[in-house]
Amino acid sequence: MNAGGGQGGSSVSDEEWERFLRESADGVPGAPEEPSARARAVARRLREEPARAEPWRTYTPARPRRLKGWYVVALLAALALLAVALIPGRVTGWFGAGGGTGGPLATESERPDQPPPTEAARRPTPDEPFRGSPAARWARGTAGITVPAARATGWMSTAQVERALGRTRDFLAASHLDPGVLRGERPERAIALINPHQQDVQDFLATAFRKPSGENDPLMLFSRFDEAHVRLVGDVVKTRGRITYREGGQGALRVTADVTYVYPVTRATADSDEVARTIVRRELVLDWDDPAKVITKPGTFSFVSYKADTTNGGCDTVTGYFTQKFAAEQPVAEPGDGPGADPYDRSASMAERMREAADEECGTATRS
To answer: What is the pLDDT of residues 108-131, one digit of tens each?
Structure first.
């Protein structure tokens, strides 16, 4: 595959991308505050690619599905402390060799078979914004995203696959970790990697930042916070997830990125020290197409689908930015609010998660 970088009229050199990737690996500013509870789920699917080559791919948007949750952290924390008292040896084993929660987790090589254990109920602080959450043991920035070894697949050689996987990780960094994008700037580096001939996606991009709506919400693809209301805490975003790939239609390299991002934030006012967290799990499926079969620009990919499941990012409002609730603003959970969903649980696929949320406008999150 051609190693060219820029799209839509902009050109990005390999050296610039490598420098940007190194900077992103150190994490990015931002994250919300303590247990608050709004979860938002949005799913988009593209139509299956026809047997013949197309000038671009088009998509059929799915009905937006949103989750808004109230946290039930206190009960879960009490149960966890009771378990520690009754069976300390068994509970210690949950945290891996060495015991305790202090050590970093190994990177995720496959989907886990259970959610992470419940942490002791400790409120996050500006100095420790991930305290009391599983993300305290996660890696920062792109270091938390597992990239597999490359092998020749579809129309691509091993070297081309390796480059495409690296560029996929670059897109994740440019759209979900870049400090400027998190502050609300237009994600030019990320957009430069999207096939400019995928017209419906280009139309979405042209509208989403100018006039956000339920159908054209930039949060479907990018993480953005409104600096007028909140500011990111520190310069670290915690991540956990992985990239996988296989051969797609017409010999394309089909890449799937399934990653959870944890952003700590505080109110924009200078005297605020309460920390809340916004947690976003995203699944992006994209094709690096064979230019002999599909009209594309070398060095760019086409979207197949994108899904997002967001906790404490806003449920019933569309502003183009995540909107957070802090502790005092949280509603009280009622008995009929349902069992709730764990935003740190990566044991279910995103398809399962979307099916569970399909009938809910706003649901319940069990922790932040």
So the answer is: 999 999 999 887 778 999 999 999
